[in-house]
Design goal:
about 70% helix, single chain, about 160 residues
Length: about 160
């Protein structure tokens, strides 16, 4: 049955296959000529795509957030039965009055309030504070309190 079909439609099938092959050849030549005629534009497009992808990748690499690990020592305040480190106090040469001023600074009092509590002048408190800063090698009140806590001079 298949043989009879091929014999009766042999010419039509050959004509159809040859037309399909000719159409395929024409499309292939058209595509080839299109590439040859527009070769510079196609190369430019390929180069543009390569640089686009490279630029996106580079931007992602440069803008990636970098993780920074910060280590900071945390000092835990001592228990209620605090014992002052007298050895450090003696080594630094901190007087009893300077200790009182330091404790009041740690409690958050201003120089004026400290002067009123200790019944001394404001200039005396400023002098005690500056000498404390020199002995503890700091520049600010908060730094003085932190260093004093770390050294075991005050308990707050």
């Amino acid at each position: 049955m298949f043989r009879t079909f091929l014999r009766s439609y042999k010419v039509i099938l050959l004509y159809g296959v040859s037309l399909a092959a000719l159409l395929f050849l024409m499309r292939w030549l058209e595509f080839r000529l299109l590439i040859i005629d527009h070769a510079i534009e196609l190369y430019a497009a390929v180069i543009a795509i390569v640089f686009l992808v490279l630029g996106i990748w580079l931007a992602k690499q440069l803008t990636k957030p970098k993780t920074v690990l910060v280590e900071k020592t945390i000092y835990v305040s001592p228990s209620e039965n605090f014992e002052r480190n007298e050895k450090v106090v003696e080594e630094l040469g901190i007087s009893k009055r300077e200790l009182e001023v330091l404790e009041l600074i740690a409690q958050g009092f201003s120089n004026h309030e400290i002067a009123e509590r200790l019944f001394v002048s404001l200039n005396t408190i400023k002098t005690h504070s500056s000498k404390l800063f020199e002995k503890l090698e700091v520049n600010r009140r908060t730094q003085a309190v932190e260093v004093a806590k770390r050294l075991g001079i005050i308990s707050l």
